[in-house]
From TrEMBL:
It comes from the Bacteria. Belongs to the TRAFAC class YlqF/YawG GTPase family. RsgA subfamily. Keywords: Cytoplasm, GTP-binding, Hydrolase, Metal-binding, Nucleotide-binding, Ribosome biogenesis, RNA-binding, rRNA-binding, Zinc. This is Small ribosomal subunit biogenesis GTPase RsgA. The gene is rsgA. One of several proteins that assist in the late maturation steps of the functional core of the 30S ribosomal subunit. Helps release RbfA from mature subunits. May play a role in the assembly of ribosomal proteins into the subunit. Circularly permuted GTPase that catalyzes slow GTP hydrolysis, GTPase activity is stimulated by the 30S ribosomal subunit. The keyword RNA-binding applies. It is found in: Cytoplasm. Residues 136-284 form the EngC GTPase domain. It holds the Pfam family RsgA_GTPase. It comes from Desulfocapsa sulfexigens (strain DSM 10523 / SB164P1). Transmembrane segments: none annotated.
Amino acid sequence: MVCCYSAGSFVKGESGRVAEKIENTFMKLSELGLDRWFIDQAGEFCESGQQIARVTVVDRGWYTVRNEDGEVLARATGRFLHSTESTCDMPCVGDWVCLRYQDDGSAATIHAMLPRKSFLQRKFAGKRVELQMIAANVDAAFIVQSCNYDFNVSRLERYLVMVNEGRVEPLLILSKTDLVSADELEELIAEIRRAGINTRIIAISNITGSGLEEIREVMDCGRTYCIVGSSGVGKSTLINRLTGDDSLKTGAVGDSGEGRHTTVRRQLIVLEQGAMLIDTPGMREVGLLGVSEGMDDNFDDIQELSLSCRFSNCSHTSEPGCAVVKAIEEGDLQEEHFQNYLKLKMESDCNALSYAGKRKKKKTL
Ligand SMILES: Nc1nc2c(ncn2[C@@H]2O[C@H](COP(=O)(O)OP(=O)(O)OP(=O)(O)O)[C@@H](O)[C@H]2O)c(=O)[nH]1
Ligand SMILES: [Zn+2]
């Protein structure tokens, strides 16, 4: 398979020459998702003698990093840790880092992290008002909901906002189709479409295997995919089906509900056909903080309508001449979709306010 390039050392400040040098060294690392954009960044961020590798596992301060020679364990240097302002500045799964390998190549130290091309992040679960990285440099996200207990269009919209905000392409997966009839499945899809969601939907069953081929087909060599969704929807089982082994543990479910929380860490897996897959633990909450592009992308119907409101700062509640309210009254816009828009926007703005307040306080201290 030719989607690979070889690494090389990068010299700081030599981005022009780095790019040139890359032509003949740009081999195996592109198999891990490296492209020219990162090469240019490496010229800026890495120092002489350092190499780049991709983070595949993060586990309590230990990083597993992978380059063309394989995986080794790495630690971040004190200097690098000191330069980070928040947990989001720390490497997460999918990040490209500059590192120095030990002489025998058995371990490494992380000295810098390259900027992210795309990312998945959410507000920490619970009261904590801070962003938590889920994965970095992701090309597309599979948002999984199961056809039975987990299906919920409002939650789907919440995931879509998160995914769009991080410049990641969304794909919807409806899992466990073996538990519903063909008519029921059709109705679920219609419900998604009625909410104005046009994202591609792939219906799958890990039991019968239906839809799995379609997933394999959308996954391209050298591209990175992340699987997100609630606990128990079948993410790990899907990965096991795609990898063809049982490397990930799955949880057994009782008759009454979904599986227990079984995935304990995030990891990047390279599939045989060359695509990469990042597994994430099931999420109970997808809190939003300061999302703007993500909201615009996912609620573009409301954005477009509001251009026709009489007042440019219309809140679409009680103002005269509101195009959004009119569209709802006339049945052109789903009330539920609009209510979810208001809810997510308020939540995101509120969190952004207290986040800004917290940061300001930290600065003055
Ligand atoms: N009926 C049915 N059950 C499935 C399907 N896929 C997975 N399951 C079952 O659902 C349960 C949960 O599956 P997992 O793959 O562990 O779910 P998960 O999304 O990885 O869960 P977390 O690791 O907690 O995030 C297991 O008992 C699976 O056997 C499916 O397509 N149909
Ligand atoms: Zn309005």
